[in-house]
From TrEMBL:
Subunit field text: Homodimer.
InterPro entries: Aldolase_TIM, TIM_sf, TrioseP_Isoase_bac/euk, Triosephosphate_isomerase, Triosephosphate_isomerase_AS
Matches recorded under PROSITE patterns: TIM_1 (PS00171), TIM_2 (PS51440)
PANTHER family, per the entry: TRIOSEPHOSPHATE ISOMERASE (PTHR21139)
Chain sites annotated for binding substrate: 13-15, 177, 217, 238-239
The organism's taxonomic lineage, starting at the top: Bacteria, Bacillati, Bacillota, Clostridia, Eubacteriales
Subcellular location: Cytoplasm
Its biological purpose: Involved in the gluconeogenesis. Catalyzes stereospecifically the conversion of dihydroxyacetone phosphate (DHAP) to D-glyceraldehyde-3-phosphate (G3P).
Gene (UniProt): tpiA
Keywords of this entry: Cytoplasm, Gluconeogenesis, Glycolysis, Isomerase
Originating organism: Pseudoflavonifractor intestinihominis
Chief localization: cytoplasm
Protein name listed in UniProt: Triosephosphate isomerase
Length: 257
């Protein structure tokens, strides 16, 4: 973390978990645990159907609400899809774009990820843009080149003045939901390289201000060490964000003055 230049953001990614009543129970439980974190922004990205309730329920805890995806068009004949504008009107602040599960199961490509980043920014949302390598790619030694390519493709055509709304999440695919976290050194190395890519694209001032998260089996035990790395400005947390105590513990690790 480096709070002098940029925001620390802890974001939960609930994926396809929690019904409305479970969302209510979580909000009730975390309310007393979390307090009002002063030094970091706390976000919960929840399933679409729970968004209106979540915006209301988590207001008291100052937790901002995010969506887990959006479409790249603002409206039209796209059965089953939800636009960034629709999310904005509900009070959503963040939207995860290009999560590896969406790339893997729903054929999202670097091209559609780029279009979604533009749609999110256009609607006034903060995109959390996910990039990450597979185990095969890491073993081939192409991680840095791949991540640089993913970042450049996602940000193509995004002007410098919009970059303060963009969050990047480095999520090695082999670490997601596997319990196999990247070491702090591995995570820091890639997050630093992402900042270098942004510096080359937009200059030092923009690069310094961008929040870069780590995601992939971040939990109450390993969060502090990961967050101690200067280029890791927060986390995108799946499994551990489903448990109020674990999520609170990670927020507390990030909420250091
Ligand atoms: P995990 O998921 O924390 O359960 O590994 C992270 C993510 O997919 O964003």
């Amino acid at each position: 973390m480096n709070r002098r230049y940029r925001k620390t953001i802890i974001a939960g990614n609930w994926k396809m978990n929690k019904t409305l009543s479970e969302t209510r129970a979580f909000a009730e439980e975390i309310k007393d645990m979390l307090g009002r974190p002063k030094w970091c922004e706390v976000v919960l990205c929840v399933p679409y159907v729970n968004i209106p309730a979540a915006v209301r329920l988590f207001k008291e805890s100052r937790i901002a609400i995010g969506a887990e995806n959006c479409h790249y068009e603002s409206h039209g004949a796209y059965t089953g899809e939800v636009s960034a504008e629709m999310l904005k009107e509900l009070g959503v602040k963040y939207v995860i774009i290009g999560h590896s599960e969406r790339r893997q199961y729903y054929n999202e490509t670097d091209f559609t990820v780029n279009k979604k980043v533009h749609a999110a920014l256009e609607a006034g949302l903060h995109p959390i843009v996910c990039v990450g390598e597979s185990l095969e790619q890491r073993e081939l030694g192409v991680t840095m080149e791949l991540i640089a390519y993913q970042v450049k493709a996602a940000l193509a055509g995004v002007p410098a003045d919009k970059m303060r709304h963009v969050v990047i999440a480095y999520e090695p695919i082999w670490a997601i939901g596997t319990g196999k976290t990247a070491t702090a050194e591995q995570a820091a190395e890639v997050c630093e390289s992402i900042r270098v890519v942004i510096r080359k694209l937009y200059g030092a001032r923009v690069a310094r201000a961008v929040t870069i998260q780590y995601g992939g089996s971040m939990n109450a035990k390993n969060a502090a060490e990961l967050l101690a790395q200067p280029d890791i400005d927060g986390g995108l947390i799946g499994g551990a964000s489903l448990k109020p105590a674990d999520f609170t513990s990670i927020v507390n690790d990030a909420n250091q003055e």
